[in-house]
Design brief:
alpha/beta; Rossmann fold; five-stranded parallel sheet; 8 helices; binds thymidine-5'-diphosphate
C-alpha cells in the first residue's frame, strides 16, 4: 500500500505520518516512511540545492530537480518496500510538483505530471491525503514555529493560494485516489478519517 500526504507547508503532515505509522505497526504491518525532496542519500544533495540555493533557479530547472529526486527515491526506496509488502507512507509526491511547480510557478500541470510519471515509471499512490488549510493560517503556524523559511515557503501568499486551489482541483478530478481533510481538525480525528477511508478501522 502506497499512501502519500499532501498539503501546504505547516498543515501537520509529519504529525499524521507519525500517527499512521504507529497505527499500522501496532497492527503488525511493516511501515516505510519516506519524503520528497530528499528521501534518499542522493536526494539529500538535491534537496539542499532546491530548497536552499541562494541564486535564482528557473522554474523548469526546479521542476526537473524535484523529478530527479523523485525518480531516485521511488526506484531505490519505495518500489523495493512495496514489493516486499510494506506500507509506504510518503510526505509529498507528484501532486506537490503539480501544485507548486504547475500552479505555483505557472508551468503546464499536465507536462509537470507527465515528467514525474516518466521519472517514476508511472507509480500512482493507492491513497493521497490532502491536509487542507487556509494559506494565511499555515503561514501563522510556520511563524509560530520560528522556522527559517525555505525557497518555496518564502513565496508570496498568492503562490500558496494557487497551490491550495490546485490540490483541491486535483482531488475533485480524482475522488477515488484523494481524501481531503480539514487540517484544523483534531489530530486523532484526522488519523481516524484516514484509517476509515483505507477501510481498516477496528
Ligand atoms: P517539505 O520537505 O515538505 O518541507 P519542510 O521539511 O520544510 O516541511 O518540502 C519542501 C518544499 O518543497 C515545500 O515548500 C514544497 C516544495 N516542493 C515542491 O515545490 N515540489 C515538489 O515536487 C515537492 C516534493 C516539494
Amino acid at each position: 500500500m502506497f499512501i502519500t500526504l499532501e498539503g501546504g507547508d505547516g498543515t501537520g503532515k509529519s504529525t499524521q505520518i507519525a500517527l499512521l505509522q504507529e497505527w499500522f505497526e501496532s497492527h503488525g504491518r511493516e511501515v516505510v516512511r519516506t519524503f520528497e525532496p530528499g528521501g534518499s542519500e542522493f536526494g539529500k544533495e538535491i534537496r539542499e540545492i532546491v530548497l536552499h540555493s541562494r541564486g535564482h533557479i528557473e522554474p523548469r530547472s526546479e521542476a526537473l530537480l524535484y523529478a530527479a529526486d523523485r525518480a531516485h527515491n521511488i526506484a531505490t526506496n519505495v518500489r523495493p518496500a512495496l514489493e516486499r509488502g510494506a506500507v509506504v507512507i510518503q510526505d509529498r509526491y507528484i501532486d506537490s510538483s503539480v501544485a507548486y511547480q504547475g500552479a505555483g510557478r505557472v508551468l503546464d500541470p499536465i507536462e509537470i505530471r507527465d515528467l514525474s510519471m516518466w521519472a517514476t515509471e508511472g507509480l500512482v499512490p493507492d491513497l493521497t491525503v490532502v491536509l487542507d488549510l487556509d494559506p494565511e493560517v499555515s503561514r501563522e503556524r510556520l511563524l509560530a514555529e520560528k522556522k527559517k523559511f525555505d525557497r518555496l515557503e518564502s513565496q508570496e501568499l498568492d503562490f500558496h493560494v494557487r497551490v491550495r486551489e490546485s490540490y483541491l482541483a486535483m482531488a475533485a478530478a480524482e475522488p477515488d485516489r484523494f481524501l481531503v481533510i480539514d487540517a484544523t481538525l483534531d489530530r486523532l480525528e484526522i488519523r481516524d478519517r484516514i484509517i476509515n477511508r483505507i477501510g481498516l478501522a477496528e
